[in-house]
Write a structure and sequence with these properties.
The structure is a homodimer. Chain A is about 35% helix and about 25% strand. Chain A has about 325 residues and is of the alpha+beta class. In chain A, a hairpin with a 6-residue loop joins strand 1 and strand 2. Chains A and B meet through strand 2, strand 3, helix 2, strand 4 and strand 5 of A and strand 2, strand 3, helix 2, strand 4 and strand 5 of B. Strand 3 of chain A pairs antiparallel with strand 2 of chain B.
């Protein structure tokens, strides 16, 4: 462990957690679990040129590397607590590390999350973060509980990150709407509070990292059900609708990755109260379809016809 | 998370742990901590061409990626329990993944360690593993407890991995002694049982990953003490002594990384019983010096002269 690099991040993240009995600087950290909770753990990696464009600002990478992991905790309904960071860098660039640390710490501080371990190595820019959170036994949201008849909902809006990515690749635009979509790639908001609010209400939950079709497909597989989605109901931002035509924005909303919204299922009688709760949290929750018998995800257009789908989402090694 | 690749590993690792409430396949794993224990966590990354030569066998990489992390738990006196794996690969190579899985699983099974989460991505071959273990509160071994007058010991033998690396780089030899040293690079043995046996006896402990001087130096820094090492006491294998001259093998033992032995300090009155315990575990423990006032590590030769040291150990970003 190279202390100087990790220390720059540690100094910016929470020091005050009394459950961190021994933090960075020894062979392992020592952590105290709150009694009566289960530990939720996840790990995610971002590679330059694969998960983010070469030249992405360090401050955005620091934020996003943590955000995509917090999104996994959000999808489980877990409260974030601790993180580990493995950062591989082409060279010891203090400005990069400081920027990365700033972005990481901005998000970590919002959750009083402590960085408790890290490793920096030399190589292609690659960032792995492992996160740890707490959830009461039996209360976690999983992908496996969706029931036929449940309503499918998503937080926020879908397709923004895919639209933003296309704008970045095209280059040129820098107005407020373009900036909004691009920000959605670089600074995704993990829906932690929404995940906590869904505990005890959602029958299944996942975060939309690979695209709605792929991720709702995981719920269907795990729950042994199918889903029917209505394209007209997909929540899309005004920026996306203004900058792209209906078919494109719909494709982005169905198949674009990197939105980090939550897709979840709720028994019909609880939908109204869940929507009220999530509106109060600021992200809202839109009904987009329902769980049916069968398997896989079908999408219907405004006339009720089943759409032919080209993209089923993002897979780093192909289908 | 790409299920097919991670699944190949998961299928080979422990399924029977009842503390894994929800394993691989959801957004996060759910784990139950044993009551009255603290959680020890560490993360380490290995990059092709930096931490291992290009062309290293996949089975060795799988073993070693876990071994270097278990070594961190060993140095804390923690019992291994769970691991997360982030594997970045240039392409979806089933033979590589199977080999990697075999090596990882061989070592995991020895400790009933469960792989509870993973992520595979495309890029330069990079492996990050995070490990989790248990230790009773207040019983962990740290780097910070060494006292003036304590004896410095190491398990096993030092310098073998550095010797093996030189043999690999030279090419050619394939006799039993060369194979032994090369095996010590590729299949390090984490000293988990030794670490557990040292709880309550060692005043400080670290694993020798960066080289004895660097790692004992970390104990000195954390404990606000110095150390004096006698070169003649450095435990060296017969293979190392047969294949390299005394000065070279001594340099390897002092500065070579990757041995993953434990270096620890013990009050004089407990040395004999500790040595008996560790002899019973098969690795043994050699006295190599003592803790003194001051700072840093000094090395004395057979005549009591202080050695001039060129290398202070391994640092991926230079001094």
């Amino acid at each position: 462990m190279e202390f100087s690099l990790i220390d720059r991040i540690r100094q910016r993240t929470a020091q005050g957690r009394d459950d961190v009995r021994l933090g960075i600087g020894d062979d392992a950290a020592l952590l105290a679990m709150p009694p009566g909770q289960e530990l939720a753990v996840a790990i995610d990696t971002m590679v330059e040129g694969v998960h983010f464009p070469i030249g992405t600002a360090a401050v955005d990478l620091g934020w996003k590397a943590l955000a995509v992991n917090l999104s996994d905790l959000a999808a489980m309904g877990a409260t974030p607590a601790w993180a580990l960071l493995a950062l591989t860098l082409p060279n010891a660039d203090a400005a990069f590390v400081d920027g990365f640390a700033d972005g990481f710490a901005q998000l970590a501080q919002a959750y009083r999350l402590a960085l408790v371990g890290g490793d920096t190595t030399r190589g292609t820019l690659t960032i792995s973060v492992a996160v740890h959170g707490f959830v009461p036994p039996g209360k976690a949201l999983t992908r496996a509980g969706a029931q036929v008849g449940d309503v499918v909902l998503v937080t926020g809006t879908l397709g923004d990150a895919a639209g933003g990515l296309q704008l970045v690749q095209r280059g040129g635009r820098s107005d407020a709407q373009a900036s909004y979509l691009i920000q959605r790639i670089h600074r995704p908001t993990p829906r932690v509070a929404a995940g906590l609010a869904l505990r005890g209400h959602a029958s299944a939950c996942i975060d939309v990292s690979d695209g709605l079709l792929a991720d709702l497909g995981h719920i269907c597989t795990s729950s042994h059900v199918g889903a029917e989605i209505e394209a007209a109901l997909l929540p899309r931002s005004s920026a996306l609708l203004d900058l792209f035509d209906d078919a494109t924005s719909c494709d982005f909303a169905l198949s674009g990755g990197d939105d980090y919204e939550l897709c979840f299922t709720v028994p019909p009688q609880h939908v109204a109260s869940v929507q009220t709760d999530l509106a109060r949290l600021g992200c809202g929750a839109a009904r987009i379809g329902r769980i049916v018998e069968g398997r896989g995800v079908n999408v219907r257009d405004r006339e009720g016809r089943q759409l032919e789908l080209v993209h089923q989402g993002w897979d780093h090694f192909g289908a």
